């Protein structure tokens, strides 16, 4: 699937030029997104490593899926894009760290916090996995600076991902696409057996 050049680090697993593509639409405050993210890291990542059985055969693209019924969805997804920008090689590690702590950003724990306070909490998550020298840049990307309603430095990246989801009819997370087509059978509960079976049927190279 298409991906604008500045967002190439959203390819989180596999070789960027691999012929097959698995797109996965995730929201940092969705419990099922967290569940499948950990499965991807545990099950698919080893298969795509050098000398793994699917090395060079498919890639995994992380798609930011903002779901407005989760109050903190926009702020957490902005943080993911900031991490992607300041430290591309640590983006997936940041995402996993945020998924591990996602309950801190659920509706009730954040209902009395200001956006600035939420972003400070997200910076603490970033400090766990991103290089120390990148944290100030991370915070800066999330700071409002332009016009009164102009967003921040990752707003355009967020718009791109939202528009991509909308034009492809993606409504919920997690949603998985294989070579551009929705795979409704893929579940966040899948273990190694189901993923191996899926790949054996769909990888054609």
Automatic annotation (TrEMBL):
CDD domains per record: DsbA_family
Domain of life where this protein originates: Eukaryota
Pfam families noted in UniProt: Thioredoxin_4
Thioredoxin-like fold domain sequence ranges: 9-189
InterPro entries assigned to the protein according to its UniProt record, in alphabetical order: Thioredoxin-like_fold (IPR012336), Thioredoxin-like_sf (IPR036249)
Protein name, per record: Thioredoxin-like fold domain-containing protein
């Amino acid at each position: 699937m298409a991906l604008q050049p500045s967002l190439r680090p959203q390819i989180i697993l596999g070789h960027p030029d691999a012929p097959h593509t698995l797109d996965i639409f995730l929201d940092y405050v969705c419990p099922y997104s967290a569940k499948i993210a950990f499965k991807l890291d545990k099950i698919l990542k080893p298969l795509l490593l050098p000398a793994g059985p699917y090395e060079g055969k498919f890639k995994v693209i992380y798609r930011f899926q903002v779901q407005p019924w989760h109050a903190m969805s926009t702020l957490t997804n902005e943080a993911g894009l900031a991490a992607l920008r300041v430290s591309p090689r640590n983006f997936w590690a940041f995402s996993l760290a945020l998924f591990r702590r996602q309950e801190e950003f659920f509706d009730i724990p954040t209902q009395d916090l200001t956006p600035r306070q939420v972003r400070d909490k997200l910076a603490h998550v970033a400090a766990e996995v991103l290089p120390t020298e990148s944290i100030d840049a991370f915070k800066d990307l999330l700071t409002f600076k332009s016009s009164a309603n102009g967003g921040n430095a990752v707003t355009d990246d967020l718009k791109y991902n939202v528009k991509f989801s909308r034009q492809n009819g993606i409504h919920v997370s997690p949603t998985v696409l294989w070579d551009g087509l929705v795979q409704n059978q893929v579940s966040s509960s899948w273990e190694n057996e189901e993923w191996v079976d899926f790949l054996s049927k769909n990888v054609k190279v």
